[in-house]
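Quarterly update from the structural biology core.
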Amino acid sequence: MFHTLFSKLTAGLFPAVSRKEQTMKFLIVGLGNIGDEYQHTRHNIGFDIIDTFAESVHAEWQDKRYGFVAKCRVKSAEMVLLKPSTYMNLSGNAVRYWLQQEKIPVENMLVLVDDLNLPFGKIRIRKAGSNGGHNGLGHIQSVLGTDNYARVRFGIGNEYTRGTQINFVLGEWSDQEKEQMGARLKVAAEVIPSFCLQGVDRTMNLYNNK
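Predicted structure, tokenized:
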């Protein structure tokens, strides 16, 4: 069902590609931690978003250096999808390697990440900025030496008591959140082709209020 909706979306929003139009390559990074104990937890929403998109375009994951990688193309955009296997706090190592390996400029990178400061399911796209205390973004910034890259922040809320932040972030979604998750993941996944085909400014206008 998502693939049908995605096909309609891309057909309606993005114009047909001219044969003369140059293909551009992008790195799409979903942040998370590998291992069954982290699967589908709040901190792994980056993995879930990129998995949702990969499924919609029938991209197949392969176990590669520093992460799981899948490749696909939507119109003029050639995408390298990455789920780092370095664990969250060393995400920058995987990002740097695949940017260099695929010869992708940092301005053509989009990072998908969780955000404690946003209500559940709220999407906030930024073209640059601080890491906001997120260890994955912090390591990417440290390794690359810049925070000038686009990111999609997916709100996980902050419904936790003092001293329980780590357990909350690494915990599972509530039953109510799980009921809404499919719809929110679909919207977040739509950001990926929009970023690649329409640019970050247009994508911010389209999705920051959804």
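The longest strand covers residues 67-74.
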